[in-house]
Amino acid sequence: MQFSRPSSVMSAVTLTTLLVLSGSIEAQQGQPFVSEGEYERWQTELTNWGRWGPDDEMGTLNLITPAKRLQAARLVRSGTTVSLSSIADTQESVDNPCPVQWEMANASRSGASDRISYPCIHGLGTTHIDGFAHRFFGGKMWNGYDVEEFVTMGGGATKNAVLTMRHGIVTRGVLYDIPRLKGVDYLGAGDRVTVADLEAWEQEIGVQVGPGDAMLFRWGRWARKDALGSFDTWAEAAGLDNMVIPWLKERDIAILGWESPGYTPRPEGDLPTLALHDFTLAHLGVHLIDRANLDELAKLAEEQNRWEFMLTINPLPIPNGTGSPVNPVAIF
After folding, report:
1. What residue ranges define each of the domains in the chain, with the CATH number in brackets?
2. Which of 34, 45, 48, 187 fits as disulfide partner to 191, beta carbons 3.0 to 4.6 Å?
3. Which residues pair with 288 in a beta bridge?
4. pLDDT of residue 163
5. Section 82-86 average pLDDT
């Protein structure tokens, strides 16, 4: 089935109608890609720059109001907790070329201490949250701040640093478990998850994300590793199709968490791997949790037959930092 390309940004409703007709992930592999022109136009039509004023550094975290936190707290019933973080990986491998560095500093009969270093905050070895001073468009970061003025080697990020999140994040989280939707343990390399897939999942569980929520997207990255061993996630990942960008804008989420930030291999003619990652962070103003491990969350959600929960995220108060290791915790 061939779809005409929109002359302006296609509404999420129209897009959903078209994608539902195309069926499964496998059938959707032949769908047209977002063009470079379309992507550039979205940078004007979909951007949230200026929405919360010219000095804003919080982005869609502004949507997490006290009322939103209370809504999240009311979701707690059993008091059961589960971490969304992967274990800090200290071993170099094909899927972790920049491991976390850990060693004991001293050990004696009177006490012990150790030290840990993150040579690559945004690397593959740790679950982390991206600050807005991480990825840019034409020398501009979130809210139009000039990178050359506010991000330097000597001073780090003096705007849009992770220090803006030092008071922590508490909101409603919703898990999108697409392998469960498809009846598989994990998706295949290059599988593109579309709006139709996301909304089919919502229909199945009777829950959907909305303003101020955290969306947790699982394609089975860690389940695949358990089954097949280590693999290069830059070369063999599934992920969200770029056509999801207008949908994310419409849903007005505050946080997007995932196991890997894009899908590969990239077919010829598609946008770069980080196109959706960068747009969501820099233009929508949505902070990203990268390299999360959502397998235990998925298991607990299935056991409790609940895919919404209270979510807490506490970035380290790193002055001028572009990102921080995090251990997000869901509370059911």
Report:
1. 12-86+127-331 (3.50.30), 88-125 (no CATH)
2. 187
3. 130, 256
4. 95
5. 97
